[in-house]
Amino acid sequence: MKLSPLYLLFILALPLQAQKFENLAQTPPMGWNSWNTFATDINEELIKDIANQFVELGLKDVGYEYIVLDDGWMAKERDAQGNLVPDPKKFPNGMKALADYIHSKGLKFGLYNCAGNTTCAGYPGSRGYEYQDARSYASWGVDFLKYDWCDTGKLNATEAYTTMRDALKKAGRPIVFSICEWGDNAPWNWASDIGHLWRVTGDIINCWDCEVGHGTWSSLGIWKIINLRKDIRKAAGPGHWNDFDMMEVGNGMTDAEDRSHFAMWSMLASPLIMGNDLRIASKETLKTLSNKGAIAVNQDALGIQGFRFTNEDGIEIWIKPLANDAWAMTFVNMHQTPYQLTFDWNKHQIGDNLNNRMLDTKNSTYQIKNLFANKSMGTTGSILQHMLQPHDVLMIKLEKQ
Ligand code: GLA
Question: Can you give the residue range of the structural domain that contains 315?
């Protein structure tokens, strides 16, 4: 066969075309981020403690992996060569030593920066320094980069995130790229070849359904976030996730609300990034964060984001198809009072049109497992009954008999 010179040139140029690192984040990333609890008040001792807690509390064993330093880890100025410098008071041994420590625990290390001139808290941003910063991250052993969107002026989001993706690729160390432009430019439509996860809204706050204004933007409670972005599920899948933000479990809501929050993030196939102080976490908080059944729903190999089935009578019912013809279902009591749940399998036709799947309770019987209680609830052969406490959740897994 005779190949034309133009065709040959095209083939030869293909490897030069940058792409994101493939085969990362095949399930939603799990980890911890400093921002929700500590803002810029972070330091080496704290982060090492958190790494120790991952191991001691068994969080590593249930799948949490990334420890991410958010805004505030840098000195206010770059050095004379233009390199980013870790704040010498907060991180006296530098980032490589901290990364080594985290890696020695079998965990992974994440950092934050921003596409603009400065970060949201006023530290040096990466604009104009993308390739140099990517080389620093690679040399320190960074495994995850959260990349924010403050002080970006007229920058085009797709272009700015593509530049950083290419810079990371060029630096050569596989790094999960976490896009954080708050959903302003609908990244679910364009980011799947650029990043591995992308924030879908502005910042989360530790409340059930509130919105707290800050002038030009607002923080959003759990249900505000869910309701705003429940319809973008088709963008999610292995290697590219809708990021519903770092979790507020353990940060002041009731234990029931925390359970519902965790169940919903699991149903939504959102990254599970803890945002609480693990050193003082209560037993109940840890029980929620470590729930193996909910985590397995989140980490399911199909990577399908769940969807709202109904929300009648103040009860949210959500559904997520799982591998091996199994399903997860979540019932949330939006009332401030207990609610007697009754669900007759014969009266509902459950299916996922997007993925062409049916939960066929007419021709098959499914075993039901209550995931938070870790016990069987019988089968779909009889009516499901459960007393739901205020703002609490029943999360179940259905498996064919
Ligand atoms: C933005 C992000 C937050 C956090 C802060 C840091 O608000 O959305 O998640 O990273 O910046 O300043």
Answer: 307-400
